[in-house]
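ok so for the tutorial part 2 we go from a plain amino acid sequence to predicted structure tokens. step 1 is just haveing the sequence, like this:
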Amino acid sequence: MDIALDTPAAAAASKPPRPRSKRRSMPMVAKLAYRNLFHDRLSFAVTIVGIVFSVVLVAVQTGIYLGSEKKIAAILDAAPADLWIVPLGTKSYDDPSLLSGRERHMALSTPGVENAEDMVVSFAKWRKPEGGQTTVLLVGSETISDRPLPPNVEAGSREALSAPDTVAIDQSYFPDLGIKAVNNHAEINGVDIEVVATTKRVRSFTTLPFVYTSIENARRLSGAEQNQASYERVLLSPGADPQQVKAQILERLPDVEVLTQQEFTKRSQSYWLFQTGAGAALIAGAVLGLIVGIVIVAQTLYSSTKDHINEFATLRALGAGAGYIVKVILMQAVLSGLIGFGLGFVLALGVIEAAKDTKLTVIMTPELAGSLFLVTIGMCVFAAISAIVKVIRIDPAVVFSR
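step 2 — the prediction. this is what the tokens look like for a chain of 402 residues:
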């Protein structure tokens, strides 16, 4: 007996078994998930197409929403002010009317105000050189401003706008306005004008072309009095309290509204995105994309689980816990999400790049990309719930009834 115990086989048999490493189960989980996922190539392709569609739709719809916010605030961001004096009841920047004409002097007489600049915004009729007309938004500002309009001048010069009857337009509106290049002529409200400068990617949310000119030209073309303006840009002295100056201006001018830069921007964005329903439509489109993605991924994972129900039951009969099988399903969902997000994100970037020089502004930010990734993975994990419920209810006795 002693000799037998000294043999290598006996010695090996006498050693206690090594505990199984928990780390070794993860590669098997990934392997099972991979094989289940690629077992039915057609079903897998449908899943990826669904996720890609969802990612592209959510990315583009959200990008359009962010682009719309940017376009609505384009003029306000290009020519910021500490305070804006606007006509009572103004809904947004491109809802213009005229002030009485005494606002600038009253603002300049207020303690804490360093400067005040007139700005005229008006709808106007643009007659194309070859016939036909369209409506434009005429924007006139003072050249003494430290942030003069227009921004992003691509051709011509901003200084040329000081000449009588000269304007600047964005290149993307050339077809709408019948213009081909700088020095072309057209008519605004029956007055012959010359395009002396063009901008790049400065577009309006309402699709009405911005037409920039000097304050003098804007008053003459819109029919405003020489001291009238649509808005008053108020610049404060260093250290002045905006709320205190705002209250003092309102005491002098009770028939106007005084808004901070942020308040005017938020009011304009809120009006166009929510009161008109445009923002709700974009959000609804993004939600629809998520729903489509969840339904397709859930259907595929559920079908895959149902097709492999006997294999899962066998694993349960061999002692695998429900948690182990749940990991397999979740791994399938995450793998689907990673592949679908990668393809969808690349396609979405292509759409955004293609829209750069069009009237449609689509924005992609690092924050949006990160959020989109988390939403995609979360969508796939949420879609796995139906398959997980099916697995938890597996009876291991199914194996012995076959």
